[in-house]
Amino acid sequence: MPSPHDFPSSFSSISALSALGWDATFAALFAEHAAAGLVPARIARVDRGLCDTLTAVGPVRADSSPLTGADREHTVCTGDWAALRPGAQPQVSALLPRRTAITRASSDRTSHQQVLAANVDTVVVAVSLAAPLNAGRIERLLALAFDSGARPIIVLTKADLAEHPGAGEAVAASLAPGVQVLTTSAATGAGLDLLSAAVSGTAVLLGPSGAGKSSLANALLGRDHMSINQVRAADGKGRHTTAHRELLALPGGGVLIDTPGLRGIGVQDVADGVGQVFAEIETYARDCTFRDCGHRSEPGCAVQRAIAAGELSLDRLDRYRKLLRESEWAATRGDARQASKRRKADKAMTRELRATYRFRGRQR
């Protein structure tokens, strides 16, 4: 573990961070922190009140409790760039603004969002070919990826266990127009070289348990870093191999964030991402007679014409509607929560002012 004296004193000596995603933009954002004697670090793993970080001089265990609060959207997250205060116990003093963030609606059905990974460039959506493809799950993950601003790719795993891997690739491509689809097998090594070439910058692995994320991680890392569990034969579902989000340096530069399997993939305020996943539906909708067409039985509906012509499936339209409804509903709850927070803050300020006036009145 580096001592506080090992930290560099100027930006000219932190070029080692470039392999972790550091660039001129982050350096400019960090300038005021550098003037205060802080050093840049990338969050690699978050525990309760503590976190592992990667710095120019190596890994540092730091206290993150000052930034661990009730607001889940702005707490310390794997992939964040942080301002670290050196000392006997290094401390995370601030976070730099996130360039991108993979977020989902909280699994507890509240109006909060959960940040899964920050400052991501590439989202690897892992899908197992050993089980029937779940179209809705793939579309949800793609919506999260697109909405974050990162570039998604679909990686089909376990091709050696599929009878017709080409058929799965065709289905995946139909669910994600314009998104790169790769077919791989960790057992045979097929497609892994293409995957390594496709991953750039900071990549995050997303998918359910049993999708083969840990095998992909090991292939990209060039070593058996992640343990691997077998899926259940009864339903094809896997047990959680990865129990936490962890950022790992890739041998050729860049970093990889591995995540636990996602059981629930709630969406919140991701209309832009949904629009990119279902780009063909929104293209058809531009030709509808009415701007507010619901694509049901309205006259002149171009979307319904596409369904009648066999160019679009009704199931895909239904999934599009469902994702938009869920996203808008969750966003409305989020807006209501923010309004409630503002009302509580206003009431607290009013109480403080009244108490001040009463105190002043007693002093006269």
From TrEMBL:
The keyword Metal-binding belongs to this UniProt entry's keyword annotation: yes
Q: Could you name the Gene Ontology cellular component terms for this entry?
A: cytoplasm
Q: Which cell locations does it reside in?
A: Cytoplasm
Required co-factor? Zn(2+)
Cofactor stoichiometry and binding remark:
Binds 1 zinc ion per subunit.
Q: Which PROSITE patterns match?
A: ENGC_GTPASE, G_CP
Binding of GTP, residues: 157-160, 207-215
Q: What's the main place this protein lives?
A: cytoplasm
Top-rank taxon of the source lineage equals Bacteria
Give the main EC class: hydrolase
Give the region (Disordered) as residue ranges: 333-352
Where does the CP-type G domain start and stop, copy by copy? Answer: 112-265
Provide one Gene Ontology biological process annotation: ribosomal small subunit biogenesis
- Describe the function of this protein: One of several proteins that assist in the late maturation steps of the functional core of the 30S ribosomal subunit. Helps release RbfA from mature subunits. May play a role in the assembly of ribosomal proteins into the subunit. Circularly permuted GTPase that catalyzes slow GTP hydrolysis, GTPase activity is stimulated by the 30S ribosomal subunit.
Family recorded in the similarity comment: Belongs to the TRAFAC class YlqF/YawG GTPase family. RsgA subfamily.
Q: How does it assemble?
A: Monomer. Associates with 30S ribosomal subunit, binds 16S rRNA.
Official protein name in the record: Small ribosomal subunit biogenesis GTPase RsgA
* Gene from which this protein is expressed: rsgA
